[in-house]
Amino acid sequence: MSIVFEITTDSPYFNQLTRRRTFLCNQLLNRTILGELMKKVIQFGQEVRDGRVHTKIGDGKPTDLLSILSSSPHIGAFIVQDRKFVYVNDHGCRNMAATPNDFLGKDSLSFVHNDDKELLRENSMKTLRGEHVPLFEFRIINRDGRTRWVLGTYVAIVYKGRKAVLGYYIDVSNMRQIDELYATLTESSQIAFFVAQDGKIVFANPKGAEQAGCKLDELIGLNSQTFIHPEDKDRVREQGIRMLKGESIPPIEFRYINKSGKLRWGIGMMTPIDYKGRRAVLGNYIDITERKLVEVEVVHSRQQLRDLTAHLQSIREEERTRIAHEIHDELGQILTILKIDLSWISKRLTPNQKDLIEKTKAMSRLVDMSLQTTKRISMELRPGLLEHLGLAAAIEWQAEEFQRRTGIQCTVKNTQDEIVWDQKLSTAICNIIQEVLLNIIRHANATKVEIELGEQNGKLEFFIRDNGKGITEDQICKPNSFGLIGIKERVRSLGGSLEISGKKRKGTTVTVRIPVSRKEHKIMVRILVADAHPILLEGLKQIISDTPDMMVTGEAKNTFELFENVSKNEFDIVLLDMSMRGRNGWDIIKNIKLERPRLPILVLSMYSEDQYAIRALKAGASGYLTKQSAADELIAAIRKVSQGRKYISSALAEKLAYEVDVFSVKPPHEKLSTREYQIMLMIASGKTVGEVAGELCLSVKTISTYRTRILEKMNLKNNAELTRYAIDERLLD
């Protein structure tokens, strides 16, 4: 027998008997010994009303009722006749901290809370009139003065030949405390809760409705995956199936789209439960959108710093190469000519000009030393062997120089007959080996070094082993190990991996693997072009169509078309105009990166780099070009960005270096947020507050608040001063 409470709308306490408490009570009665006892009493009451059992108590005839009531350790029972207690069972006495004598002959409402007396009086009268009284809650006050909540009902009986009322109840005070705690946890919690049954949402708390962007009653009855991002539905469903099979599943991250269409991130768990007697799923999750945005921001910031480092390193290498060539070609030639001239002079000196002969010999030795020094400096800046004989010869020269200068034996093992790669890769490898050898000199105390070089499975591999004291884990992880950090960054910039291991007194091994390709494969770059100006859009398509390995596979004239393309189609790069109406460019970039974190974005804007480039890169763009750029530069930027790299012009690299300089004094407009900076430029260009509000789809009051904040941050008084500042700083075209 399964008990389900009957709740009638004509009860004054209907609003107190919430769905939650009814559910909890049903669970309690259906799953405990107390429930089994209560079932018997309720069943007996039904049989009494149906006239199927003997209802006269106290006339000497056997009855199951008194045996049930007197022996029950959980059910309180009492009989009232003429509004006086004539019987109370043992549990009822214990529950009231009283004895039978404290009850017998006393008013039946003497132990009832004042606010509930009228309810019990009405239900008692209904019972005596033969009406059915469903289970109801009321409060009793025991002799200790403590208030207890109980759940019970009445049955009309005959006691010692006269009509009487039998009342029975269970104590639900603890249940109410659990219910109050449950209400607090669900209704006031910042965690979203929901219960899904048969694929439908049957319960949700206010936070869940808030995060879905709709009212609570709108949420009930919807498909449980209504708001889940289409790409995450199968994964969430699969986790739910595993959970229902009894498997332990970890918290799951997922994307959801609320009623207003905004993309959000959540993390949560699912648990199997019984809800109203049937199998269901309890889900809870928290919104982590802000955290994900911060993660994206941090990843992009780190990538920007790495790109800046790589760019500066590239410039450094180019400069080293130029200086090495100039030293070798210019200074080397001058010294060689000087040596020839000294030889010519010495041949024309007579034997009796001993002082001049000795002087020319000394000068010749000095020139020889200068030539050797010039050669050494030039080779250290960039080994000439690298250009003329290749990587293997350059590494062998490095090993010989290392051995000659330090006395440490250094051997090179080359597993390939010939290793030829592009100059950039070869230079980077030479620099990495040079850094490792420098670390060996400083820290290893080694007497022997071995360099092994080769290629396997499309990757360049080289190992550098020494027999020194061996590096420790603490030394590898030290934050101020700048030599190791430099090596790691060089390897990472090449898309490779670095492993460093050491054993005490047995040396250290450095392993580097870098993916390489001996052949270039033409891969078609798929481009989404987003520009609000039709003429420019057609021009861009024409430029791209003239490039064999690129094609426009999508175009967008507004933000709706842009986001639809991004969500439904695959692209290698987005070519984005910053000035698309309805949304500012930075918001567009952030939303694209939230939807497709790995999709590169190249910004093509009419605004100069000084105005927007840094902010665009911070928002997640991979490169920035002005629309005044040449077509060749545009194609080069697309190619570079589509390969997962960053496109940064020399001017922009200088600005990035300025950005990361914590000691530099930045102009006032650099203190503004992205939105404030955008509004500042619009006001400075002569637009009214109303016009700005219309373009950005914000209220005039909001724009006025922004304007006040901008003037305060920049220490300006009015729009005229703002315009003058923008002109002086060349922020306006």
Task: Tell me the number of strands.
Answer: 21
In quaternary terms, these chains amount to single chain
**SSE class:** alpha/beta
Sheet with the most strands, sense and barrel status:
6 strands, mixed
Can you tell me about this structure?
The protein starts with 18 loop residues before the first helix and ends in a 5-residue tail after the last helix. The strands form four sheets. Strands 1, 2, 3, 4, 5 and 6 form a six-stranded mixed β-sheet that branches. A five-stranded antiparallel β-sheet has the order 8-7-11-10-9. Strands 12-13-14-16-15 form a five-stranded mixed β-sheet, with helices on one face. Helix content is 49%, strand content 20%. It contains 27 helices and 21 strands. Mean pLDDT is 78; it is low at 1-34 and 518-522. Strand 7 (192-197) and strand 8 form a beta hairpin. The chain is an alpha/beta fold.
What brief labels describe this structure?
733 residues; single chain; alpha/beta; disordered N terminus
Please give the structural blueprint.
Elements: H1 19-31, H2 33-50, E1 56-57, H3 64-71, E2 76-81, E3 84-88, H4 90-95, H5 100-103, H6 117-128, E4 136-141, E5 147-159, E6 162-171, H7 173-187, E7 192-197, E8 200-204, H8 206-212, H9 216-219, H10 233-244, E9 252-257, E10 263-275, E11 278-287, H11 289-347, H12 354-381, H13 384-388, H14 391-406, E12 409-414, H15 423-444, E13 448-456, E14 459-466, H16 473-477, H17 482-493, E15 497-503, E16 507-515, E17 525-530, H18 534-545, E18 550-556, H19 559-568, E19 573-576, H20 585-595, E20 601-605, H21 609-619, E21 623-626, H22 631-642, H23 650-660, H24 674-684, H25 689-696, H26 700-714, H27 719-728
Parallel strand pairs: 1-5, 12-13, 17-18, 17-19, 19-20, 20-21
Antiparallel strand pairs: 2-3, 2-6, 4-5, 5-6, 7-8, 7-11, 9-10, 10-11, 13-14, 14-16, 15-16
Helix pairs in contact: 1-2, 11-12, 11-23, 14-15, 15-17, 21-23, 24-26, 24-27, 25-26
